Every structure is written in C-alpha cells, then in structure tokens.
Amino acid sequence: MSVFTKVSYNELRDFLQQYPVGELIGYQGIGEGIENTNYFVDTSDGRWVLTLFERLNYDDLPFFLGLMDHLASRGFTGAMPARTHEGKNLVTLNGKPAALVHRLTGQGVLFPNLAQSAAVGSALGDLHVTGLSYAGRCENSRGPAWREQTAKALLSRVDKDTRALIEDELKAQSKLNFAALPQGVIHADLFRDNVLFVDDRLTGVIDFYYACNDALIYDLAVTLNDWCFETNGHPNAARWTAMTDAYRARREPEESERAAWSLVLRAAALRFWLSRLYDWTFPREGDVVHVKDPDQYRRILEHHRNTAPPAL
C-alpha cells in the first residue's frame, strides 16, 4: 500500500478542525497512489480525499490546487479542493503539505467502451477550453528536456536495440517545436485510472498533479495512447474515432497541430516509455509492486513510427 506517511485517528481528527467539514467518522489508506499518500475520509458533512504530497515540488502545489478550483467552479467534472476556515486549500499534516478535496463518485474503467471513450474526449476538450482562462503557470516537468536527460541516464544501461531506438527517436523529436503549437493547461496524465464513471456517465477527472502548461494537442496524444490502444500495441480504431470526434466537437485542432500530429503521438509514447523504463532500471525503495511494464509503451511508440495515424 502506498501510504508513505502514517496518520493516526487523533492526528486526522485534529487536522480536520481547520475545515468546515463536520466530525471525523472514519478513514482508510488508498493503495493506488505512487507519488503521494492518499486517504479516503468520511465526516459528518461529506466524503473526501486527503492527499499528503511526498515528492512534488511545493512551489507547484498552488498551481495544481488552483487549477482544480478554477475548473470545478466553472462546471468541469473535477474535484473541488476544500478550504479551511481561513480560506486556505494547502496546509500541512505531519510535516507534509496536504490538501483535502471532495471525493467524487464512480470508478475507473479497465476496458472502456465507445461511449466512455467519447466522454473522455469531450471532457478533455472542455478542460482545454476552460483552462485557457486560468492564470496560473507551471512548466511541464516531463517535457523535452526531461526526455533528453532521462534518455542519457538510460543509454548505458539498456541493450543495443533499445539504445538505437531511443537515440533515433530523440533525433526525430528534435524536429518538433512544442512551443510553436497552441498552448494551454493540460492534464498530462489522463489515463484510465484518472477518470471516474458510473456506467457510461463520466463523473469526474482526478489527479491533476502532473498538470502544466504545454501543447494542447500533446494532451490528446497522451490520452489516446492509453485509452485507445490494446495490449498488443495496436490501436482500437473505433475508440480512437469516438474520442477524437468528441474532442473536436469541443475544440477544433489547428493546422499546425494536424501537421505535427504523428510526431506528437510519438513524443507522448516516448515520454511514458522512458518513464517506465527508468523506474524499471532504477527502482526506488517501495516501488517494486508499482513499476509498470515499459514494453507496453515501446510497442505503442513503434506502432506510431511505422504507421501514419488517422488525420485529425
């Protein structure tokens, strides 16, 4: 279980006195988190998720929480951070920065259908349009510079074929100028476990802690690579079409995005392949049960390198 910081009942009860959320009823640790400690919390006035931030840059936390507040207050289906009696949404618990947010109903889906894929495309388009009015700024911590740095750390530790693939893809990616593409706030990690559903109704987008300012179309590429690929590394054409059509109904890509689309899809696949390959090669203490198979994203990258994507 990924509960890095233990919180006792009494500690949590005292912590909650800062908020207008009623009395503590119960709580339990959430095992899915990798970067943070998470608890489900029930009080007499509602249901919440408590997050203690273990590894994120403290200076970036106001951006994440402010974005969640900005989106939710404008009707986006995301969690609203709770505020203390003093109006703060970021506080401290057991020496760690912490936030309490409303717990949304629903659960993630492992095998999405067409209706769910379309709902995610619509939500992503809504996020990009609504996020344009958010004044916060945060650089992408997993952007091109990170990919270069991570690749260099891996090159001496991987086999010959893997090294050749990484080097060739980095050379191809050097031709892609992300800054020249339409920019805005992106989720950057909109995987299946970060979207909640009740049947086919999307009830919430969660985990904004990789959100940043970057190329909007890159966010669509990240999302498609997770939601619309089978485990064999081939896309599901029906889900792909459902998601992209729904996204375009909310936000129409520009010509520059269409022209760069193939390389953007490859960049999104490379980012998660490198991330997983790094975690596989340099495991952190306590990560053994959480390291995901890097070959899944290698197969997606190789598909994009060998096959032109459907036009946007």
UniProtKB/TrEMBL annotation:
MF term (GO), any: homoserine kinase activity
Every Aminoglycoside phosphotransferase domain range: 28-252
Pathway the protein acts in: Amino-acid biosynthesis; L-threonine biosynthesis; L-threonine from L-aspartate: step 4/5
Keywords assigned: Amino-acid biosynthesis, ATP-binding, Kinase, Nucleotide-binding, Threonine biosynthesis, Transferase
EC class name: transferase
Entry's EC annotation: 2.7.1.39
Gene3D superfamilies named in the record: 3.90.1200.10, Phosphorylase Kinase, domain 1
BP terms from Gene Ontology: threonine biosynthetic process
Catalytic activity: L-homoserine + ATP = O-phospho-L-homoserine + ADP + H(+)
InterPro entries membership: Aminoglycoside_PTrfase, Homoserine_kinase_II, Kinase-like_dom_sf, Pseudomonas-type_ThrB
Family the entry assigns: Belongs to the pseudomonas-type ThrB family.
NCBIfam families hit by this protein: PRK05231.1, thrB_alt
Protein name (record): Homoserine kinase
Gene from which the chain derives: thrB
